[in-house]
Amino acid sequence: MNSTTVPDVRTSIKLNEQATYDPNRLLDALIEKLDLKNDAALAYLLEVGPPVLSYIRHRRFPVGAMLLIRMHEVSDLSIRELRALMGDHREKFCRSNKQARPEKNGPGKFPMIENMESGEL
Fold first, then answer.
1. How far is the C-alpha of 115 from the C-alpha of 106, rounded, in Å?
2. Which end of the chain is more exposed for a tag (fewer CB within 10 A), N or C?
3. Domain 10-88 is of which CATH architecture?
4. Which spans does this entry mark as compositional bias, Basic and acidic residues (predicted)?
């Protein structure tokens, strides 16, 4: 029997994102802009350990928000420019409503606050 499989749209989107995502381009651009010699000098300036940049170059770690903010502070490049350098061309970068809002426990109550008020914490 001849079976055909339809490619999953989510998979093809992820593959397209991976094709344009290149953290090396971002790190190389920062080294050039800041007139640094290597990743170790950039790591020192960003206040991270050199292995962090190595893991980013080898795509073991993503470029996180805090590191992106630190890159902005030391380079004076906008966050949008930094994201474009690494191939992230999305208009907005935000979480979904489900991720951004904590679950309420009852009408207008948040579990942590309720536990603090009752002395359970």
1. 13
2. N
3. Orthogonal Bundle (1.10)
4. 94-106
